[in-house]
Amino acid sequence: MAIYIDENTRVMVQGITGNQGSFHTRQMLAYGTRIVAGVSPGKGGQEVEGVPVFDTAEAAAAQERLDASILFVPAAFALDGALEALNAGMKVVVAITEGIPVHDAMTMITIARQKGAVVVGPNTFGLVSSGKCKIGIMPNQIYTPGSVGVVARSGTLSYEIVANLQEAGYGTSTVVGLGGDRAVGLNFIDVLPELEADPETELIVMVGEIGGTAEEEAAKYIEAHVSKPVIAYLAGKSAPPGKRMGHAGAIIERGRGTFQAKVEALSAAGVEVAELPFQVPELARKILA
Amino acid sequence: MKLFEFMGKELFKDYAIPVPDGRVVRTPEEAAAAAEAIGSVVIKSQVLTGKRGKAGGIAFVDDPQSAQQEARRLLGMEIGGFPVEHLLVESKIRIDKELYLAITLDGGRRCPLILASLEGGMDIEEVPEAQIVKYPVDVTLGLRPFMAREICRRLGLTGGQAKAFSDLLFKLFKLFQEMDAELVEINPLVISGDSLLAADAKVTIDEDALFRHQALHRVEERTDLEKKAHDLGLAYVELEGDIAVMANGAGMAMATLDMLHYYGGKPANFLDAGGGAGVEQTARALELLLATEPRVILINIFGGITRCDDVAKAFATVKEAKDLTTPVVFRLVGTNEAAGLEILRGIGIQAYRTMQETAQKAVELSRQSSA
Known about the structure:
With 289 residues, chain A is of the alpha/beta class. Chain A folds into 2 domains: 10-120, Rossmann fold (3-Layer(aba) Sandwich), CATH 3.40.50; 138-288, Rossmann fold, CATH 3.40.50.261. Helices cover 35% and strands 23% of the residues of chain A. Chain A has helices at 19-31, 57-63, 75-87, 102-114, 155-167, 188-197, 214-225, 259-268, 279-288, and strands at residues 10-14, 34-39, 47-48, 51-54, 68-71, 92-95, 118-120, 126-129, 133-136, 145-152, 172-177, 203-209, 230-235, 272-274. In chain A, a hairpin with a 3-residue loop joins strand 8 and strand 9. In chain A, helix 6 (188-197) packs parallel to helix 7 and helix 7 runs parallel beside helix 8. Chain A starts with 9 loop residues before the first strand and ends with a helix. The mean pLDDT of chain A is 94. Chain B has 3 domains: 21-91, ATP-grasp fold, A domain (Dna Ligase, domain 1), CATH 3.30.1490.20; 97-212, D-amino Acid Aminotransferase, Chain A, domain 1, CATH 3.30.470.20; 224-366, Succinyl-CoA synthetase domains (Rossmann fold, 3-Layer(aba) Sandwich), CATH 3.40.50. In chain B, 37% of the residues lie in helices and 26% in strands. Chain B has 11 helices and 18 strands. In chain B, the strands form 5 sheets. In chain B, strands 1, 8, 9, 10, 11, 12 and 13 form a 7-stranded antiparallel sheet that branches. A 4-stranded antiparallel sheet of chain B has the order 2-7-3-4, covered by helices on one side. Chain B starts with a strand and ends with a helix. In chain B, 46% of the residues are buried. Chains A and B meet through helix 1, helix 4 and helix 5 of A and helix 7 of B.
């Protein structure tokens, strides 16, 4: 069992004919993802990497059974693209796009929830069920199957940690990118119950950062509901307050969302907090020994 | 993007939210003229920071002459690092009671959140939780009359006051949605008889949605360098140290800074070169770093959507064009790693494998070149 997606998930790529869309379609196919359709308005009838391209998601859904979609659509059109996918019956919509207006993000997330679907992101690297299915933009070579479930707010930083784990001999079960924006479809507290229930996951690694309260909420949830061991690494210990560190959500405002508050909340919930990324596999070794 | 109070109030007027009679001025003479026309006034410094009252940035005057004097004093001030360049001269209003009303984004619930309290006028952080009504609004429903009734009930507002409050709430919610606001805050919202008046306006607009609001005046909070970086599509924050940092991804960039600190180094900046940056954009980012004249440059790339060969190509181009002498510590792994490393070897650079080796080397070099 895997969470959200697995080897049977049939994937559609929106914006498949663009530079990023076509490049990552190739990468995902190489990983083994079953990409069965692409959408690009006006480009219906073409093929990208052997994948048939349709003008609309409905046209694609009429031809192929589809479960999930990944969006490589410019920010201004991302809401429409996500709603198109949801309306065509997609249960998982992965919004890679950066810079989507937050009101648009809230709308797509709310509608997804009402339709019993999930939006991953926006501004996410995607998610991967290691060895089975990758829907995202992360480098293929670091995801080998194993028993560590990873949930991360930040993309490249999670690659760093997953690669460190891999080098130390620990593969991953599922890796989920929450996304760096203020409002994202999945938060830690949405993914934690899935990882807790997933028989393939023995250890949970959270990759968080300063700003917001997602880590504090996760700490509360873990204390009450998570029996599996959890390791956390948080970025932004040295960040000055009032400065937005790249991600819309990564800012210490009015003394909230500080590194210290998050470390304290997580530690109190029994989570092992790593000070630097390379300490994560060291802690994993201690826990899984 | 934070708006000045006077800009927020202009928006309020567009949405028929009542505000005190007022004028924006830039000189003491204009302030005197405004006071002449309005009468007893309050003069408020226009800065993008709170607590200006405590900082002495607000003055009450009754005649044009004192208005001129006070305006001169205020225009010379700096509040929270912001120089005062504009003043809002407003009619003094009768205050029966001060309320608080705001709409913000609730990231946890992924929806707008209405915050209302009968205890306005002070910092909302200082108001006890029990006295704040928090009401999330489902975006697919929008604000509905039944919600307004419930908020009034919880606040204990009735009759004419409840009606005026609901009416204002609908206008504010419309503004919040249509203007892509992240925050609209009225503190205090003044009850004057049976009418309500927005005595202050704090409005923040989502920068990602500015393309939908071409008419809105742009407010710049960034330093020149930060602005330049922003225009290039880079996230850049100036810091105090001497090791220039470029990484891809905000989390990775933050973790790189943390690691430099851990090993005793001092980063000069936070630079997220962004996801999927091509050769051209990466080259611009590097040029920006060089312009800050750092002692050492640290480049930490874990390619996902970013391709290692693009970064290496960009670096090779800039190195040649700028005749680079600053020591550079490189770490390059991920998508198209082999091709990237080969380009770097071609220009005599051996990249490091791990982040910690890279950070340690950068710190070591920063110490050498400062000795």
